[in-house]
Each structure stands twice: as structure tokens, then as C-alpha cells.
Amino acid sequence: MFTVIVFLGVLMPIVGLVILIMIRLFDQELDVLGLENVKVRLEKELQESEYKQLTERIQPHFLFNTLNAFLSLSRIGRQQDMTYGLERFSLFLRYRYQDHDVLVPFMTELEHTKNYLAIQQLRFGPRLSVEYALSPSAVDCKIPPYTLQTLVENSFKHGLEKKPGDKSLKISLEREGNWVSLKVVDNGLETIDISNSLKGTGLANIRRRFQLIFDLPAFLTLSKNAQGKTVAHAYWPYIPEDEEDERPNR
Fold first, then answer.
1. Rounded distance, CA 15 to CA 60, Å?
2. Does residue 79 lie in a domain region?
3. pLDDT per residue as tens, the chain (250 positions)
4. Residues sharing a CB contact under 8 Å with residue 161, sequence separation 6 or more, in sequence order
5. Which CATH number fits the domain that encloses residue 89?
């Protein structure tokens, strides 16, 4: 009996110490998990805030050119064309300053871009031709807002506006398995510096938004094809219109 009492007297403090250590380790583990949850939440809030800033930073550079085009139409008495242009310009601005989800239907983005192109068509007239090649299996996809418009705007800003003579632009969209491939091809200046264009704010914004939205591979490239035309190529996961929007969650 004495031996048992001595054994318990020695063992109980050790057991108590072990229990205290385990409780402390458990508390520390809970603290770590809590900190990780806070970190994940803060990172998500930061990404959503950054995404919003990137979206708001996209400003149509052609505003002054558009106003000058309207002034020119007014001076030469083309009131009907000016009215048409103002209607398209109003629709463009309405879309631009509306709140949008992280992803919008491609056809919605296309209609917005067509308003932009209608204004450019007034500026350049028959010298500008626009072609569309849209695959039926891809047009129901979702796309980050302003992506297509930014690519088209980039074509004018860095190539078409400075090119004399005829100007051509082609927008193509196709499905490649579980991904979507969007290409904007223009016959702008052949001397365009691709490396400098890639550093532009608009293209950098698209890349960063792709990173914030998609967990799967998505990219944007700018290159010259065999005919010397400039090709902007965006590639991202296929998400149909009836699927929930993918919020930044990485």
C-alpha cells in the first residue's frame, strides 16, 4: 500500500505536467488556426479590394479623340452620324460606370465593345473593317469585364490609330476543351514594339485580374503572326453563364 501511495505521489505530478503541456499545445494550435483563418480572410479581402482597384483603373483613353470626332461631325453638318455616335457613347459610359460582377457574360462584354467600335468607325469610316469569328460553343462563356474592350482599345492605341490607309481588326473566340481562347488581331504598324506594349497598364491589369480570379491556368500574350499582324491572345478557364461567379479565393 505504501508503495502504491509513493508511486501515485510521484506519478500524479508527472501526469499533471503532461496534461498541462498538452493543454498548452492545444491552445497554441487553436491560436495558430485562428491566425491562419484571420490571414486567409485578410488575404481574400485584400484580393477583392485589389481587383476592384484594378477594374476601376481601366479608363477609356479615347475620350478626347471621341469628343474631337463629334466636333468634326458637327462642323461638317453630319448631325445624324453625330446623334448615332452620342447614343453609342452614352451606352459605352453607362456600362463603364456600372457595378459588375467579377465575371460577366461574353456577349455582354461584346456589346459593350461594339459601342466602342461604333465610335471608332465614325472616326475612320470605310478605312476601318471589323471581322468577327465567334464559335457557338464558346459564346456562352464568362469573361472578366473590360477584357475584350481593353484588348481592342490596345489595338487602336498602339497600332491602328497611327497606321495610314486601311485598318483591319478581327475578334475571334473559340472553345479549347475546358478553356476559352480569345484573339484580337490587327494590321497596325508593323514596327510596333511588342515588349513596350506588354508593359502597358491595360494588359498588366488583365493579367493581374486573371491571377486573382482563376485558380487554373490563364494567360495573356502579345505577338506577331506570319503576316506581320499583331495578335493579342487571352486564354482562361471556360465558365458557362449559368454557373456561379468565381470570386477571388486564393
1. 71
2. yes
3. 555 454 445 555 665 556 666 666 555 555 555 545 554 555 555 555 555 555 555 455 667 778 888 888 888 888 888 888 889 888 888 887 777 788 999 999 999 999 999 999 988 999 999 999 999 999 999 999 989 998 998 888 888 888 889 999 999 999 999 999 999 999 987 655 555 555 567 788 888 888 888 888 999 999 988 888 999 999 999 999 876 554 444 3
4. 65
5. 3.30.565.10
Domain residues for 44?
1-57
Residue 78 and residue 138 share a domain: yes
Q: Is 250 among the domain residues?
A: no
Query: Is 204 inside a domain boundary?
Result: yes
- For residue 60, report the phi and psi dihedrals to the nearest 5 degrees: -70, 115
Do 42 and 69 have their domain in common?
A: no
CB 94 within 8 A of CB 60: no
Q: How far is CA 110 from CA 104, 144, 241, in A?
A: 10, 12, 14
Same domain, residue pair 100 and 210: yes
Number of domains in the chain: 2
Q: Which helix (H) or strand (E) segment is 92 a member of?
A: helix 79-96
